[in-house]
C-alpha cells in the first residue's frame, strides 16, 4: 500500500481497507429484521391460501374435506402449527416495531429489534410446551 511521506496511511486508504470483500451486504439488525419480516409474511400468505383452498373443499366434496382435515391432525402438522404461530407472532411484533419506527424515532430501532426477539421468545416459550402436550397426548 502506498504510504504518505510520514509513513502513515492516508484517510482514503484507511476507509477502503475496512470495506468487506465482495458484494454481499453485511447488514445488522435492520437487515435481519427486514429479511425475517418478508419471510414470515410470505409464509403466512401461503398458509392463508392453503387454508382457504382446504376450507373450500367442504362445498365440493365433504369426504375430501374430511380426508384433508384428518391429515392436519398428525404430529407433523402439530409441529407445523408451532412454526406458523412463530411466524405470526414475530411478524406481528416486528410490524409494531416498524410502526413505532415510522411514527416515533428510528434512533432506537436496534434496541426495539432485540425487544421484539425477546417478546417472541417469551411468547413461544409460553405457547410451545402447552401446544405440544396437546398434539402428542392424542
TrEMBL record:
Cellular component GO terms held in the UniProt record: membrane
Entry keyword set: Heme, Iron, Membrane, Metal-binding, Transmembrane, Transmembrane helix
Chief place of localization: membrane
Organism in which the protein naturally occurs: Cryobacterium melibiosiphilum
Gene Ontology molecular function: electron transfer activity; metal ion binding
PANTHER family: SUCCINATE DEHYDROGENASE 2 MEMBRANE SUBUNIT SDHC, SUCCINATE DEHYDROGENASE HYDROPHOBIC MEMBRANE ANCHOR SUBUNIT
Pfam families reported for this sequence: Sdh_cyt (PF01127)
Annotated InterPro entries: SdhC_prok, SQR/QFR_C/D, Succ_DH_cytb556, SuccDH_FuR_B_TM-su
Region feature Disordered, mapped onto this chain: 1-22
Entry annotated with the keyword Repeat: no
UniProt keyword Thylakoid, yes or no: no
Cofactors required: heme
Transmembrane domains' residue ranges: 35-53, 111-133
Record-stated family: Belongs to the cytochrome b560 family.
Biased composition (Polar residues): 1-15
Protein name (database record): Succinate dehydrogenase, cytochrome b556 subunit
Record-linked CDD domains: SQR_TypeA_SdhC_like (cd03501)
One GO BP annotation of this record: tricarboxylic acid cycle
Location of the protein in the cell: Membrane
